[in-house]
Design goal:
Helices cover 36% and strands 12% of the residues. It has 413 residues and is an alpha/beta fold.
Length: 413
């Protein structure tokens, strides 16, 4: 590690309220989570979706109070849903979260699986817009549903023609089908517009496809874009959404999420098995509730920092990564880097979509030659080959060092 890591040429003093500049690299290396323990100590981990931030004070306060009381039993009540409803009304000007049409689930992906079980049978189809979050493939396939891909367009946005074609294929032989939407989209950072989502809802209605929207990154929309809850658009009354504070407040280890049903899907949500609600952590419910209810100021500071890092990454990529196209994300803290012109994706095969820790092509190259861990594009499905996903929710110093290392490795090719 170079001496630059102890200095910050990107204005940490000006960002002193930014959670991204609060922890040193040595503090981060003491963490025992997947991000910091999967690779050796000399690797800078910019892969899995964990942020390099301390917890929001509101979350710390809620957890400390529960621990002091020994309040570590089973979750109860509707406070989580009420907190999300208030957050949605304030942030998204949407009053459509109805507590009676919500259910607590262990986390977003397990909630998605349970909703898919309400809407489909084994052998039915689940449409995804590839490249997309690898667990969409893994969880769907492991539950005996068939993944049908609809490739994103060249602009990395939903391609209505490709989506309609996928809906037709998914509904073949009268099978039931669901469109599993990533809103905002992971890994590209695209924030779908209201018009785009209205078109999705119209297509889904016309073809008899149900929609399940993964909105785990919804609070992480950056300046220049506006988040639209899928359930807020006309035609989405029979859809479902999954929400959580886990990405925006870095709470992945505190399991809890909410399933939301549109008014026409409320009866189906009531069929969710009672035991599903036993899976969330009580501490998780308390933490997520506190985040939505009292963590707004912390989130605002984080968004300022992420916006600054987004700009910094763009400059660094232009300076150090010739031949790499860095798509500017509109939301999330994930950047999608097109490395196809480097010719590295012909090296290695990998195990295909859904295998999150598998590496091939440019991700393997940057790990081996630059000691920077990125997510390998091929695990995101069709269209991901030759790409990498970079997590920029880290300090400016770590981000600068990582991209500098990547550039040095390319120059040594």
């Amino acid at each position: 590690m170079t001496g630059r890591m102890d200095q910050d040429p990107d204005g940490a003093e000006a960002r002193r309220t930014d959670p991204l500049v609060r922890l040193s690299l040595e503090q981060l290396r003491q963490r025992s989570s997947m991000k910091w323990r999967t690779h050796p100590r000399d690797v800078l981990p910019l892969w899995v979706a964990e942020m390099d931030v301390p917890l929001a004070p509101a979350v710390v306060e809620a957890l400390q109070a529960a621990i002091e009381l020994g309040d570590t039993g089973y979750p109860w009540g509707t406070a989580y849903a009420e907190a999300l409803a208030a957050f949605a009304a304030e942030r998204w000007r949407w009053d459509g979260v109805r507590v009676e049409r919500t259910a607590i689930v262990p986390d977003v992906m397990l909630g998605i699986v349970e909703v898919l079980r309400l809407l489909t049978d084994p052998g039915d189809s689940v449409v995804v817009c590839s490249p997309v979050y690898p667990p969409f493939y893994a969880f769907v396939s492991h539950d005996a549903r068939v993944v049908v891909e609809a490739r994103l367009g060249a602009d990395l946005r939903i391609d209505p023609d490709a989506l309609e074609d996928a809906f037709v294929r998914a509904r073949g032989d009268g099978r039931r089908a669901v469109f599993l939407l990533s809103n905002p989209h992971n890994p590209t950072g695209v924030v779908h517009t209201r018009a785009e989502l209205e078109a999705v809802a119209d297509l889904a209605r016309r073809h008899g496809v149900r929609v399940v929207s993964d909105e785990i990154h919804a609070p992480l929309v950056l300046p220049g874009a506006v988040f639209t809850p899928f359930l807020s658009v006309p035609g989405a009354e029979n859809a479902f959404a999954l929400a959580s504070a886990s990405k925006a407040w870095n709470l992945a280890g505190l399991k809890a999420a909410l399933a939301l049903a549109g008014p026409e899907a409320a009866d189906e949500l009531r069929l969710l098995p009672e035991e599903v609600g036993h899976g969330p952590s009580h501490l998780g419910v308390l933490a997520h509730t506190a985040a939505f209810r009292k963590g707004g100021d912390w989130l605002d500071d984080l968004l300022v920092g992420l916006d600054a890092n987004r700009d910094l990454l763009g400059r660094l990529a232009a300076d150090h990564l010739p031949g790499v196209r860095c798509h500017r994300p509109e939301g999330t803290y994930l950047a999608w880097l097109d490395c196809t012109r480097l010719g590295l994706h012909t090296e290695g095969g990998g195990d295909g979509p859904g295998v999150v820790t598998d590496l091939a092509g440019p991700a393997r190259f940057f790990l081996d030659r630059a000691r920077v861990a990125l997510s390998s594009g091929h695990v995101f499905g069709s269209g991901g080959e030759g790409h990498v996903r970079l997590n920029f929710a880290t300090s400016p110093a770590v981000l600068r060092e990582a991209v500098t290392r990547m550039g040095r490795a390319l120059r040594e090719l």
